[in-house]
Amino acid sequence: MSIELPPDFAQWLALREPADVAARSTDLVDTLRVALPDRRPVVVHDLGAGTGSLGRWLAPLLPGAQHWILYDQDPDLLARARAGMPAVAADGAPVTVETRVGDLTRLTNTDLTDAALVTASALLDMLTAVELDRLVTVCAEAGCPTLFLVSVTGTVRLTPADPLDDEIAAAFNAHQRRSVGGRRLLGPDAVEACAAAFARYGLDVHLRPSPWVLGSDQAALAGEWFTGWLDAAREQCPDLTDRTGGYERRRRAEAETGRLGVIVDHVDLLALHR
Q1: Is the overall model pTM greater than 0.70, yes or no?
Q2: Structural domains of the chain sorted by starting position, each given as residue range(s) with its CATH number in brackets
Protein backbone atom coordinates (compact mmCIF):
# COMPACT_ATOMS: atom_id res chain seq x y z
CA MET A 1 0.00 0.00 0.00
CA SER A 2 1.44 3.34 -1.05
CA ILE A 3 -0.66 6.39 -0.25
CA GLU A 4 0.03 9.59 -2.16
CA LEU A 5 0.29 12.34 0.42
CA PRO A 6 -0.23 16.04 -0.32
CA PRO A 7 2.88 18.23 -0.08
CA ASP A 8 1.52 20.03 3.00
CA PHE A 9 0.59 16.84 4.84
CA ALA A 10 3.00 17.51 7.71
CA GLN A 11 1.32 20.90 8.24
CA TRP A 12 -2.07 19.22 8.34
CA LEU A 13 -0.82 16.73 10.95
CA ALA A 14 0.53 19.58 13.07
CA LEU A 15 -2.75 21.47 12.80
CA ARG A 16 -4.87 18.50 13.84
CA GLU A 17 -2.62 17.29 16.66
CA PRO A 18 -4.28 19.31 19.48
CA ALA A 19 -7.72 18.06 18.41
CA ASP A 20 -6.47 14.47 18.36
CA VAL A 21 -4.96 14.87 21.81
CA ALA A 22 -8.21 16.26 23.20
CA ALA A 23 -10.25 13.50 21.57
CA ARG A 24 -8.29 10.36 22.48
CA SER A 25 -9.68 8.19 25.26
CA THR A 26 -7.63 8.27 28.46
CA ASP A 27 -10.11 5.74 29.82
CA LEU A 28 -8.74 3.15 27.39
CA VAL A 29 -5.19 4.05 28.40
CA ASP A 30 -6.12 3.28 32.02
CA THR A 31 -7.34 -0.16 30.89
CA LEU A 32 -4.24 -0.64 28.76
CA ARG A 33 -1.80 -0.01 31.62
CA VAL A 34 -3.18 -3.01 33.51
CA ALA A 35 -2.95 -5.22 30.41
CA LEU A 36 0.66 -4.44 29.48
CA PRO A 37 3.20 -7.21 30.17
CA ASP A 38 5.65 -6.86 33.03
CA ARG A 39 8.76 -7.18 30.86
CA ARG A 40 10.78 -4.04 30.21
CA PRO A 41 11.26 -2.20 28.06
CA VAL A 42 7.70 -2.17 26.75
CA VAL A 43 8.11 -2.42 22.98
CA VAL A 44 5.48 -0.32 21.18
CA HIS A 45 4.91 -0.60 17.43
CA ASP A 46 3.31 2.63 16.13
CA LEU A 47 1.86 2.03 12.66
CA GLY A 48 1.59 5.03 10.34
CA ALA A 49 3.32 7.22 12.87
CA GLY A 50 3.42 10.35 10.71
CA THR A 51 5.10 13.11 12.68
CA GLY A 52 4.79 11.17 15.95
CA SER A 53 1.70 12.75 17.48
CA LEU A 54 0.54 9.48 19.04
CA GLY A 55 3.89 8.73 20.63
CA ARG A 56 4.20 12.23 22.04
CA TRP A 57 0.81 11.76 23.71
CA LEU A 58 0.96 8.13 24.83
CA ALA A 59 4.56 7.55 25.92
CA PRO A 60 4.31 10.00 28.88
CA LEU A 61 1.09 8.28 30.00
CA LEU A 62 2.66 4.82 30.30
CA PRO A 63 5.02 3.75 33.09
CA GLY A 64 8.37 2.05 32.76
CA ALA A 65 11.07 1.90 30.13
CA GLN A 66 9.72 1.92 26.58
CA HIS A 67 11.11 1.28 23.12
CA TRP A 68 9.01 2.73 20.31
CA ILE A 69 9.23 1.44 16.74
CA LEU A 70 7.71 3.99 14.39
CA TYR A 71 6.47 2.89 10.95
CA ASP A 72 5.61 5.09 7.98
CA GLN A 73 6.10 5.18 4.22
CA ASP A 74 7.56 8.70 4.39
CA PRO A 75 11.12 8.93 5.78
CA ASP A 76 10.88 12.70 6.23
CA LEU A 77 7.82 12.34 8.47
CA LEU A 78 9.60 9.63 10.45
CA ALA A 79 12.62 11.89 10.98
CA ARG A 80 10.31 14.53 12.49
CA ALA A 81 8.59 11.89 14.60
CA ARG A 82 11.85 10.56 15.99
CA ALA A 83 13.12 14.03 16.83
CA GLY A 84 9.90 14.92 18.66
CA MET A 85 9.45 11.82 20.80
CA PRO A 86 9.63 12.34 24.58
CA ALA A 87 12.75 11.05 26.29
CA VAL A 88 11.07 9.72 29.44
CA ALA A 89 7.96 7.79 30.46
CA ALA A 90 5.37 8.64 33.11
CA ASP A 91 7.71 7.59 35.93
CA GLY A 92 10.90 9.04 34.43
CA ALA A 93 12.05 5.77 32.86
CA PRO A 94 13.81 6.11 29.49
CA VAL A 95 12.00 6.08 26.14
CA THR A 96 14.04 4.99 23.11
CA VAL A 97 13.01 5.16 19.45
CA GLU A 98 13.71 3.51 16.13
CA THR A 99 12.05 4.04 12.74
CA ARG A 100 11.09 1.70 9.92
CA VAL A 101 10.12 2.84 6.42
CA GLY A 102 7.75 0.47 4.68
CA ASP A 103 4.33 -0.76 3.63
CA LEU A 104 2.07 -1.45 6.61
CA THR A 105 -0.06 -3.88 4.62
CA ARG A 106 2.97 -6.15 4.36
CA LEU A 107 3.48 -6.32 8.12
CA THR A 108 4.23 -9.88 9.29
CA ASN A 109 4.31 -11.84 12.52
CA THR A 110 8.10 -11.56 12.45
CA ASP A 111 7.90 -7.77 12.55
CA LEU A 112 5.88 -7.92 15.78
CA THR A 113 7.75 -10.72 17.56
CA ASP A 114 8.79 -8.45 20.44
CA ALA A 115 5.62 -6.34 20.60
CA ALA A 116 4.03 -5.48 23.94
CA LEU A 117 1.63 -3.05 22.24
CA VAL A 118 0.58 -2.29 18.67
CA THR A 119 -0.98 1.11 18.14
CA ALA A 120 -2.02 3.56 15.44
CA SER A 121 -3.99 6.76 15.04
CA ALA A 122 -6.27 7.79 12.14
CA LEU A 123 -5.13 4.83 10.03
CA LEU A 124 -7.94 2.32 9.57
CA ASP A 125 -10.09 4.27 7.09
CA MET A 126 -7.26 4.19 4.53
CA LEU A 127 -7.26 0.37 4.38
CA THR A 128 -9.26 -2.07 2.28
CA ALA A 129 -11.22 -4.94 3.83
CA VAL A 130 -8.50 -7.43 2.87
CA GLU A 131 -5.72 -5.21 4.23
CA LEU A 132 -7.58 -4.66 7.48
CA ASP A 133 -8.21 -8.38 7.96
CA ARG A 134 -4.53 -9.08 7.36
CA LEU A 135 -3.50 -6.38 9.85
CA VAL A 136 -5.90 -7.67 12.51
CA THR A 137 -4.60 -11.21 11.99
CA VAL A 138 -0.99 -10.11 12.53
CA CYS A 139 -1.93 -8.04 15.60
CA ALA A 140 -4.06 -10.82 17.13
CA GLU A 141 -1.32 -13.41 16.61
CA ALA A 142 1.23 -11.09 18.24
CA GLY A 143 -0.55 -11.82 21.53
CA CYS A 144 -0.40 -8.26 22.84
CA PRO A 145 -2.88 -5.38 23.22
CA THR A 146 -3.81 -3.38 20.13
CA LEU A 147 -4.86 0.26 20.46
CA PHE A 148 -6.29 1.98 17.38
CA LEU A 149 -7.24 5.61 18.01
CA VAL A 150 -9.24 8.38 16.30
CA SER A 151 -10.93 6.33 13.57
CA VAL A 152 -13.63 8.21 11.67
CA THR A 153 -17.24 7.00 11.73
CA GLY A 154 -18.72 9.20 9.01
CA THR A 155 -20.90 11.25 11.35
CA VAL A 156 -20.41 15.01 11.22
CA ARG A 157 -22.42 17.77 12.91
CA LEU A 158 -22.06 21.44 11.99
CA THR A 159 -23.55 24.45 13.75
CA PRO A 160 -25.35 26.47 12.71
CA ALA A 161 -27.04 23.68 10.74
CA ASP A 162 -27.64 23.98 7.00
CA PRO A 163 -29.93 21.93 4.71
CA LEU A 164 -26.93 20.96 2.54
CA ASP A 165 -24.91 19.48 5.41
CA ASP A 166 -26.31 15.94 5.18
CA GLU A 167 -25.99 15.72 1.39
CA ILE A 168 -22.36 16.84 1.51
CA ALA A 169 -21.62 14.44 4.35
CA ALA A 170 -23.07 11.54 2.33
CA ALA A 171 -20.97 12.48 -0.69
CA PHE A 172 -17.84 12.79 1.46
CA ASN A 173 -18.42 9.36 3.00
CA ALA A 174 -18.86 7.87 -0.47
CA HIS A 175 -15.55 9.48 -1.43
CA GLN A 176 -13.89 7.84 1.58
CA ARG A 177 -15.15 4.46 0.32
CA ARG A 178 -13.82 5.04 -3.20
CA SER A 179 -11.49 2.79 -5.16
CA VAL A 180 -7.90 4.03 -5.45
CA GLY A 181 -5.59 2.13 -7.77
CA GLY A 182 -7.85 -0.90 -7.57
CA ARG A 183 -8.06 -0.69 -3.78
CA ARG A 184 -11.57 -0.07 -2.42
CA LEU A 185 -11.14 1.81 0.86
CA LEU A 186 -13.20 1.06 3.95
CA GLY A 187 -13.45 4.70 4.98
CA PRO A 188 -15.96 5.20 7.81
CA ASP A 189 -16.81 1.48 7.87
CA ALA A 190 -13.31 0.55 9.00
CA VAL A 191 -13.60 0.73 12.78
CA GLU A 192 -16.74 -1.44 12.86
CA ALA A 193 -15.05 -3.96 10.57
CA CYS A 194 -11.95 -3.90 12.77
CA ALA A 195 -13.93 -4.57 15.95
CA ALA A 196 -15.73 -7.49 14.28
CA ALA A 197 -12.45 -8.95 13.03
CA PHE A 198 -10.82 -8.86 16.48
CA ALA A 199 -13.96 -10.40 17.99
CA ARG A 200 -13.68 -13.33 15.55
CA TYR A 201 -10.26 -14.02 17.04
CA GLY A 202 -11.81 -14.13 20.51
CA LEU A 203 -10.35 -10.84 21.73
CA ASP A 204 -12.23 -8.49 24.03
CA VAL A 205 -12.89 -5.26 22.13
CA HIS A 206 -13.38 -1.98 24.02
CA LEU A 207 -14.76 1.01 22.11
CA ARG A 208 -14.91 4.62 23.22
CA PRO A 209 -16.09 7.77 21.41
CA SER A 210 -13.31 10.22 20.58
CA PRO A 211 -14.93 13.12 18.71
CA TRP A 212 -13.25 16.24 17.50
CA VAL A 213 -15.15 19.16 19.03
CA LEU A 214 -14.02 22.26 17.18
CA GLY A 215 -15.16 25.68 18.35
CA SER A 216 -13.78 29.19 18.09
CA ASP A 217 -10.48 28.09 19.68
CA GLN A 218 -9.93 25.68 16.76
CA ALA A 219 -11.08 27.98 13.96
CA ALA A 220 -8.02 27.29 11.79
CA LEU A 221 -8.52 23.54 11.97
CA ALA A 222 -12.28 23.86 11.41
CA GLY A 223 -11.64 25.90 8.29
CA GLU A 224 -9.01 23.54 6.91
CA TRP A 225 -11.14 20.51 7.70
CA PHE A 226 -14.15 22.12 5.98
CA THR A 227 -12.13 22.79 2.83
CA GLY A 228 -11.03 19.17 2.55
CA TRP A 229 -14.50 17.88 3.42
CA LEU A 230 -16.27 19.96 0.79
CA ASP A 231 -13.60 19.38 -1.90
CA ALA A 232 -13.85 15.60 -1.46
CA ALA A 233 -17.67 15.73 -1.62
CA ARG A 234 -17.53 17.77 -4.84
CA GLU A 235 -14.99 15.36 -6.34
CA GLN A 236 -17.32 12.48 -5.59
CA CYS A 237 -20.48 14.30 -6.77
CA PRO A 238 -19.48 17.02 -9.28
CA ASP A 239 -23.05 18.36 -9.44
CA LEU A 240 -22.52 19.71 -5.92
CA THR A 241 -19.99 22.24 -7.23
CA ASP A 242 -22.64 24.40 -8.89
CA ARG A 243 -25.04 24.11 -5.95
CA THR A 244 -22.71 24.83 -3.06
CA GLY A 245 -21.10 28.16 -3.97
CA GLY A 246 -23.20 30.18 -1.55
CA TYR A 247 -22.93 27.45 1.07
CA GLU A 248 -19.15 27.53 0.82
CA ARG A 249 -19.02 31.32 1.21
CA ARG A 250 -21.27 31.21 4.29
CA ARG A 251 -19.33 28.42 5.93
CA ARG A 252 -15.95 30.03 5.25
CA ALA A 253 -17.14 33.28 6.77
CA GLU A 254 -18.37 31.40 9.83
CA ALA A 255 -15.06 29.55 10.13
CA GLU A 256 -12.98 32.73 9.78
CA THR A 257 -14.97 34.48 12.52
CA GLY A 258 -15.00 31.46 14.84
CA ARG A 259 -18.76 30.97 14.51
CA LEU A 260 -18.56 27.55 12.82
CA GLY A 261 -18.94 24.67 15.26
CA VAL A 262 -17.80 21.27 14.02
CA ILE A 263 -18.11 17.86 15.64
CA VAL A 264 -16.42 15.03 13.74
CA ASP A 265 -17.15 11.68 15.36
CA HIS A 266 -14.32 9.17 15.84
CA VAL A 267 -13.97 5.95 17.82
CA ASP A 268 -11.03 4.57 19.80
CA LEU A 269 -10.59 0.79 19.92
CA LEU A 270 -8.64 -1.38 22.34
CA ALA A 271 -8.41 -5.13 21.66
CA LEU A 272 -7.22 -7.36 24.51
CA HIS A 273 -6.58 -11.08 24.79
CA ARG A 274 -8.68 -12.75 27.45
Answers
A1: yes
A2: 10-154+184-213+264-272 (3.40.50.150)
